[in-house]
Specification:
With 429 residues, the protein is of the alpha+beta class. Helix content is 26%, strand content 29%. The radius of gyration is 57 Å and the shape is rod-shaped. The chain starts with 20 loop residues before the first helix and ends in a 10-residue tail after the last helix. It has five helices and 23 strands. Helix 2 (125-161) packs antiparallel against helix 4. It has a six-stranded antiparallel β-barrel with strand order 3-12-15-14-13-16. Strands 2-22-18-19 form a four-stranded antiparallel β-sheet, with no helix packed on it.
């Protein structure tokens, strides 16, 4: 068995040495120093590290369109609708009876006729005979009257030879005054009959009473007519009317013609015409009654030569329902705006001198379908915004297309150019 050659002192276990208080303090100071140095180094590194600078928030101005405010030119426009009517319209009737023996080539619906044109002829034979009979009767009575005047002259000579006094009645009988008066009355009656016969003969010629157009005809050659028979319907061609209705309050701006100088101008358009075609008329007369259903005033607008067609002036069609734009009297010192620029019914958007939005209330003097007249709230030269703004706020920044923003695409492209390598040099990698 092996033997243990160690001495008893060597066989005892090693006991760790205990640190003195001084040694512990030294070690603690060293540790604290190391931690402090490390913390200071970290602080220095944090303070010297580059920091990102916060950029101030840039206010983005809203792009808008605007135009300067100007005074209204000319009068206001009253838009209305109306129906075209004939100014003159008659049923042409015969005044004597007889057979139609001839008609004019223009005696047809749609034909134009002039005043005095012969358009139909009633057989005049019987009426010529009546004229001859009346002329013969007149001639006979005139001859008898001459004979009676001779007899009266003889009676006056005989009465002068008589002696003695006679009464006035006896003297009238002796001088044949009664016979002369009878013949004179007969002559007047015969002359009247002759005049009537001549008039009836003239009436066998049916003539146009005015310039016009024939709408309908009811007779032809061979037709028998009596006095009062309707032969045709004729409308005047010199002028036509458009009957329109307007609100009673707007009459103050409309000039009525009547017997005064010409009334307000009116432009007439029909849905069947092209956009370039129109007719012009004048406000002629204010009718004395109010339109029953809408309590509107009624006006007559006169159009000359309604059935004549010229360049961009189409012929009118009776009964057509047309648009009428009446140019009324102007409002002094007023501003005309497109109705689209009106906001919330009674305000507008303005761009002030600081390029900021101003929402301003206005006072409206007049309005129609497309425009409004402003009498208070705006000044000439101010910039009214004509484009839309999604969320308008009073005082928000604005700009127009004349105020260009920096071109960020150009700035970015310049940065890329600075990053490109010079020719002849190689990039890393």
């Amino acid at each position: 068995m092996p033997t243990n050659n160690l001495s008893p002192e060597q066989q005892q276990p090693e006991v760790p040495q205990q640190l003195s208080g001084k040694q512990k303090s030294i070690r603690l100071i060293i540790a604290i120093t190391i931690v402090a140095i490390a913390g200071y180094a970290a602080f220095i590194m944090f303070q010297s590290a580059p920091k990102a600078k916060r950029k101030p928030h840039a206010i983005q101005a809203t792009l808008v369109e605007s135009q300067p405010i100007v005074l209204a030119q000319g009068g206001v426009v009253i838009d209305t609708m109306g129906t075209i009517l004939a100014r003159k319209s008659i049923n042409l009737t015969s005044e004597v009876a007889g057979k139609i023996v001839a008609i004019s080539e223009h005696f047809e619906p749609g034909s134009k006729i002039n005043k005095g044109d012969l358009i139909a002829q009633i057989d005049p034979a019987d009426y010529r005979l009546r004229v001859l009979q009346a002329e013969s009767s007149v001639a006979n009575i005139r001859a008898n009257l001459k004979i009676e005047r001779g007899q009266q002259l003889i009676a006056e000579q005989e009465f002068a030879l008589l002696e003695g006094s006679v009464t006035a009645e006896e003297r009238a009988l002796m001088l044949r005054k009664a016979q002369k008066e009878v013949l004179e009355a007969s002559l007047a009656n015969a002359e009247a009959v002759l005049e009537q016969a001549q008039l009836n003969l003239q009436r066998t010629e049916i003539k146009a009473p005015f310039n016009g157009m024939i709408l309908t005809t009811t007779v032809n050659v061979g037709s028998l007519v009596t006095s009062g028979t309707t032969m045709a319907q004729i409308v005047g061609s010199d002028a036509a009317w458009v009957e329109v209705t307007v609100p009673y309050a707007k009459l103050q701006q409309i000039k009525i013609g009547d017997n005064n100088p010409p009334g307000s101008t009116a432009i007439i358009n029909s849905a069947t015409w092209s956009s370039e075609e129109e007719r012009q008329g004048l406000v002629l007369r204010l009718l004395p009654d109010i339109e029953a259903q809408g309590l509107m005033a009624r006006l007559l607008v006169e159009i000359k030569d309604p059935f004549t067609t010229t360049a961009n002036k189409p012929r009118l069609m009776l009964g057509d329902y047309v648009h009428v734009a009446i140019t009324g009297e102007p409002f002094p010192n007023s501003i005309l705006l497109d109705r689209r620029y009106l906001r919330n019914g009674n305000s507008v958007w303005l761009m002030d001198s600081s390029n900021q939005l101003e929402i301003r209330p206005i006072t409206i003097a007049w309005h129609n379908k497309n425009s409004v007249l402003i009498k208070a709230g705006l000044e000439v030269g101010e910039q009214i915004i004509t484009s839309n703004i999604a969320a308008p706020v009073d005082g928000m920044a604005l700009r127009t297309d004349t105020e260009k923003l920096p071109n960020t695409d150009n700035v970015q492209s310049k940065k890329l150019e600075n990053q490109q390598p010079s020719k002849g040099k190689k990039t890393n990698g």
